[in-house]
Write a structure and sequence with these properties.
Elements (H helix, E strand, L loop, with lengths): L6 H4 L4 E9 L2 E8 L4 E2 L6 E2 L2 E14 L2 E13 L9 E3 L13 H14 L1 H10 L6 H10 L10 E10 L3 E8 L4 E6 L4 H9 L6 E4 L3 H10 L4 E4 L1 H17 L2 H8 L10 H5 L10 H29 L4 H8 L3 H7 L22 H9 L5 H10 L6 H16 L22 H9 L7 H13 L1 H19 L5 H10 L3 H12 L1 H7 L7 H16 L6 H10 L1
Length: 550
């Protein structure tokens, strides 16, 4: 006898409720199929002749933390097809359990967990939710899950990602219109990308970095698509060009940062003199200076080795392998005609620095009471702890006991550009920065630098104009800019212009079209997160399944 319950709200269509029992920690539901006929899964022929009946236990999502089990009485039918190889078949219950032992909604929940968290973390969360499943079972579900179809792609973003940085790389493909990953390729090669592109002839735009591999692959696989060079990579290439050029202009950078000043005195006498620095013994600066000198000696030896191999005609890759240094270090030192200078050590600022002259003057006047000195500087605006002032006065006492009275004037610091040392990287950043975002000291420094060297003036002007073209998408100005860059006095800008002309259509499209590789870089970052989240269980199949389903 059928139970008078709204079964369409409790169970899927085709089942009716037989019994419901609620016990401690468990809910058991017994149901049976009410269909009279079923189709053979092999030949598709319908049959109503019942062979036998059996019970199937299926797990379902827990209810308020209580385990729910569904017991379904299913039937076996005879297949009446004369040509069918299967004589007996079981009726299918796709709306209840596509797999034998779990309902569809439980499978969906487990897939969502493993796609978001992976195996180990997903198993921990499932246990907290009352779902009993192992991490290996979760990973098997992710690998066997059907991947979503990417559909038609009109605007494609292409970039590489590292399985192991410096050794193995793959390719990520993103639909820029829908902001969605459409596919992952197991390698970074022209062949794999060309094969994928031939399956998607609808592509109209393709954004990429300046990689030769992807440029040639897009030309072969999607010849009608407009290639768009990513604007960030254009600016990044320009910044690297500026930094390499400014490395050769270090004397001019230093002279513009401190015009008319004497070279820094690094003698022992100069190091022993000066004001007492709070919170530090006098030997602190000497130890740091000795470490800096030794580090600089190692850099000079490295520079000599790089220059010797480079001038002998050695390949850059061979230099990196021979000396055990990065390619960036080789590029940094190969064109320097003089050894890299040693950076001066500068102590960190202290909150007591503005009050040091007053404290020293009062000490020389005979006021040696630390608490009184603290109250006096509090009246002058000091808002920090008394302990700092107490340590400073203790150093004054020790200095006086050694017969070395402190100076009443703090040591003057070497001038800098708005707190930045005039390194090539700092100045390259100033060349790239918008004029309205520069501080007054930075503007003065750049003015002195450009007045002293015409090549640097041309470089800064061209860098500002190129930045404006990138920001405002003014690709129509590119030809005129290239002519000016090729005629300027800076060899670095001439080389940069020649490099742009080798990829001119894509560069012009990058300065005209709205597409960029920004969304692709974001998905690469997410891909790195999923890879690290896998705790070593991040093979290509699993990584692809999680990335496409994320």
């Amino acid at each position: 006898m059928r139970t008078a319950i709204a079964t369409h709200e409790l169970l899927p269509e085709g089942l009716y409720l037989e019994s419901l029992s609620i016990e401690t920690g468990r809910v058991s539901i017994s149901a049976a199929s009410e269909t009279r006929r079923s189709r053979c899964p092999l030949c598709g022929r319908g049959s109503s002749r019942v062979h036998s009946r059996y019970s199937r236990s299926v797990s379902d999502l827990p209810w308020h933390g209580i385990t729910v089990e569904l017991e379904v009485r299913a039937r076996r039918f005879f297949c009446d097809g004369a040509s069918c190889e299967r004589r007996i078949f079981c009726e299918r219950l796709p709306d209840v359990a596509a797999r034998a032992r779990k309902t569809g909604r439980l499978e969906g929940a487990l897939l969502a967990i493993v796609f978001e968290l992976g195996g180990r973390a997903g198993a921990r969360l499932a246990e907290e939710l009352g779902l009993v499943v192992g991490r290996d079972a979760l990973l098997r579900r992710a690998k066997s899950a059907s991947l979503p179809d990417g559909g038609k792609v009109r605007s494609l973003g292409v970039d590489d990602f590292a399985f192991r940085k410096g050794h193995a790389y793959g390719t990520i493909l993103v639909d820029l219109e829908r902001r969605k990953v459409v596919d992952l390729l197991p390698e970074r090669s022209q062949e794999s990308l060309v094969a994928w592109l031939k399956e998607h002839p609808e592509i109209e735009f393709a954004a990429r970095d300046r990689s030769r591999i992807y440029r040639e692959a897009l030309a072969k696989g999607a010849p009608t698509a407009v290639q768009v060079t990513d604007r960030w990579h254009l600016l990044h290439n320009l910044a690297l060009t500026l930094e390499e050029f400014l490395l050769q202009k270090r004397p001019a950078l230093r002279e513009a940062a401190a015009p008319g000043t004497e070279p820094e005195d690094r003698s022992d006498d100069s190091f022993a003199s000066g004001p007492v620095i709070p919170n530090r013994p006098r030997t602190h600066d000497r130890k740091i200076e000795d470490a800096a000198r030794k580090r600089h000696e190692r850099l000079v030896e490295q520079w000599k080795d790089i220059r010797r191999l480079y001038l002998a005609g050695a390949d850059l890759r061979h230099i990196c392998k021979r000396l055990g240094v990065s390619a960036r270090t080789v590029y940094r030192y190969k064109d320097l005609t003089e050894p890299p200078p040693r950076r001066a050590y500068k102590r960190n600022k202290s909150v007591l620095d503005p009050y040091v002259p007053y404290l020293v003057a009062r000490w020389n006047e005979g006021c040696h009471n630390g608490k009184k000195l603290y109250r006096e500087i509090r009246e002058r605006g000091y808002r920090n702890s008394e302990e700092i002032c107490a340590r400073f006065t203790a150093q004054l006492r020790r200095a006086e006991a050694r017969g070395k009275p402190p100076s009443s004037v703090p040591r003057a610091r070497k001038s800098s550009v708005a707190g930045l040392s005039p390194t090539s990287k700092n100045v390259a950043a100033l060349f790239m920065r918008r004029e309205e975002k520069l501080k007054d000291k930075q503007k003065e420094y750049l003015g002195r630098l450009c007045d002293a060297d015409g090549a640097l003036a041309d470089t800064r002007r061209l860098a500002q104009e190129f930045n404006g073209m990138v920001r405002d998408l003014e690709g129509e100005k590119l030809d005129g800019w290239l002519q000016e860059a090729e005629a300027c006095r800076a060899p670095a800008m001439r080389r940069f212009a020649i490099g742009l002309k080798k990829d001119l259509p894509a560069v012009r499209a990058g300065l005209t079209e709205e597409w960029s590789n920004g969304p692709v870089e974001g998905f690469v970052n997410k891909l790195k997160l999923l890879k690290r989240q896998g705790y070593g269980r991040a093979g290509f199949d699993l990584l692809k399944a999680r990335m496409l389903a994320a």
